Amino acid sequence: MDKQKQAARNQKEDVVLNRTLIWFGGAVVVELLLLLLNRYYINYNVSGITLMSNIHKALPVMIAALAVLTVVCAVWLYTGLKKKRSGLIPGLLTGVFGALALGCLAAFRFKGAGIQLMCTLVPAVAVLALVYYLYQREFFAITVLSALGLVGLWLFRKAGGGHAVVVYGYFAVVAVILVAAVLLARRLQQAEGMLKRGEKRIRVLGHGANYALFYVSCAVVAAALAAALILGAAAAYYLMFALVAWIFVLAVYFTVKLM
Q1: Which of 19, 106, 135, 189 is least surrounded, with the fewest CB atoms within 10 Å of its CB?
Q2: What's the pLDDT tens digit per position in 148-161?
Q3: Same structural domain for residues 116 and 150?
Q4: Are residues 170 and 200 in the same domain?
Q5: Rounded CA separation 143/218 (Å)
Q6: 228 neighbors 155 (Cβ within 8 angstroms)
Q7: CB-CB contact of 34 with 137 (8 Å)
Q8: Buried b (16+ CB within 10 A) or exposed e, 29-39
Q9: What H or E segment, with its residue span, contains residue 194?
């Protein structure tokens, strides 16, 4: 019996490892393509002006095509999950095409700053995939919300008073997401981690989920964004480190909890 349990555990660990490696492989591919875009579209030299111009003309078409591919793969993912099939490949393709679409859009709209942001976000998404497969779901949700806060602080600092519509629009979207997350967490807490969908009950969080830390994390992200708006771009720089430190503390806590 012990051997059977050990074999099942080893098989589960292998599946997690393979999925994590696939996500990291996809992140490497996207990162390389973004670096090529940065090299020949942003940091081009005199001899590369013609290539840069051609890329600039092609970017709107590439953005539209990648957006369509993202939607198609998202539908494929939804259909597969509905039929209880593996969503790894369609999910990965959705992420890759979506990241490339956002990368091209960021380069076209924000130039070097946009590429810099995407080159940071892509490995961050790979790390989120690692967190999703290895840690408790509440920690994954906390990490995602904290990452949204970090992106908001980065945008606010980089904008320096410019792109007000984009920055404040992003802050508003994050605020809505935080409120929705708190309401959903409260509903799950009352239902002991279960979410009712029609006549089915789906387990979203485990019995031992730490809802208090989730609420505190939402408050921390909201406070960091509000402090940045009040204190300015200089404070946003230090608030980014504060959020990273908060994620690190939670990572230690949930790692110990896994043991």
Answers
A1: 189
A2: 999 899 888 887 76
A3: no
A4: yes
A5: 10
A6: no
A7: no
A8: ebbebbeebbe
A9: strand 194-197
Which letter does DSSP use for residue 191 in this model?
A: T
Q: pTM for the full model?
A: 0.79
pLDDT one-digit tens code per residue, 228-244? 999 988 899 999 999 99
Identify the residue whose tokens are 């967490």: 185
Q: How far apart are CA 82 and CA 34, in angstroms?
A: 33
Is the pLDDT reported for residue 102 higher than 60? yes
Distance, CA of 30 to CA of 70 (rounded, Å):
14
- Residue 2: is its pLDDT beyond 70? no
Q: Are strands 200-203 and 194-197 parallel, antiparallel or unpaired?
A: antiparallel
CB atoms within 10 A of CB 119: 18
Nearest to 138 by CA among 77, 207, 223: 207
Same domain, 126 and 97: yes
Q: How many domains does the chain have?
A: 2
DSSP character string of 40-64: IIIS--GGGHHHHHHHHHHHHHHHH
224 with 110, same domain?
Answer: no
The residue segments making up the domain with residue 172 are: 136-259
Q: Measured in whole angstroms, how far is the alpha carbon of residue 126 from the centre of its chain?
A: 8
Q: Is residue 11 pLDDT above 80, yes or no? A: no
Q: Identify which has the larger pLDDT, 88 or 185.
A: 185
- Percentages helix, strand, coil for the chain, rounded to the nearest 5? 85, 5, 10
Q: Angle, to 10 degrees, between the axis of helix 233-258 and the axis of helix 137-159?
A: 170
Query: Which uninterrupted H or E stretch holds 32?
Result: helix 2-37
